Amino acid sequence: MKTKLLTTQEQIFTQVENAVISLGQCRQSELTFEKLLKIALVRKHESIMEYINLTFLIEGISFTSHVHLIRHRLTTPMCQSSRVELDDIEIVIPESVKAVLNDKDHTLNDWCYDVRKMYKYLIDNNVPAEDARYLLPQGVKINMAIHMNLREFKHVINMRTAVSAHWEIRSVVESMIENSKEVSLLRDFLK
């Protein structure tokens, strides 16, 4: 699984500038937008975070975990269809499953091969891909983009990095946090 922040630092600076102006701060202020943002957040003016929008690309997330992200109502997800090309079928297999279905008897590899074979058979026999995908496992890897404002991202972080969060979704969100820290304005916010 791999994530990438698609929103550029310049886009975020423009969004912060617009947010600061909305707070009634003078453009000619000697304070930088970064300092004004910090002041607003310290004063609990968290609505400013709704002006800052982030878009992430997430590659190789399981269908199961993508559902955890799209459940957040203030996000805008765009997901790859699960009507996949046969060669593209990859499956996320948790370590706990691998430990039980070790490949001594090739059970796991055989099962994954059989899923691909069955899907191909259905497609080759004119079953619509929309119907054939019902037989694909929930661990099928997909790619997605997700867009949210900074306030919602803070909420997603709190929910999906908790100890009780599922390991894959926690890993995805932790990667999103690391990507975001590359933007100086977000670095302090995400400590």
Helix count, per DSSP?
9
H-E order: EHHEHEHHHEHHH
Structural class by sheet pairing and helices: alpha+beta
> How many E-type strands?
4
- Name the CATH class of the largest domain: Alpha Beta
In the CATH hierarchy, the architecture of the largest domain is 2-Layer Sandwich
Radius of gyration: 21 Å
What does the overall shape look like? elongated
Biggest sheet features:
4 strands, antiparallel
Give helix % range.
Answer: 40-55%
* Domain tally: 2
Strand proportion: 5-15%
Q: Which key phrases capture this entry?
A:
191 residues, 4 strands, elongated, 2 domains, 9 helices, four-stranded antiparallel sheet, alpha+beta, Gyrase A, domain 2
Write a structural description:
By secondary structure, this protein is an alpha+beta fold. The protein folds into two domains: 2-79 and 141-189, Gyrase A, domain 2; 86-135, no CATH class. The protein contains nine helices and four strands; from the N terminus they run βααβαβαααβααα. It has helices at residues 9-22, 33-42, 63-70, 95-100, 107-124, 129-132, 150-160, 167-180, 184-189; strands spanning 2-5, 53-62, 75-79, 141-149. It has a four-stranded antiparallel sheet with strand order 1-2-4-3. The longest helix is centred in the middle third of the chain and has 18 residues, at 107-124. The two termini are 23 Å apart. 22% of the residues are buried.
What is this structure's SSE topology?
Blueprint: E1 2-5, H1 9-22, H2 33-42, E2 53-62, H3 63-70, E3 75-79, H4 95-100, H5 107-124, H6 129-132, E4 141-149, H7 150-160, H8 167-180, H9 184-189
Antiparallel strand pairs: 1-2, 2-4, 3-4
Helix pairs in contact: 1-2
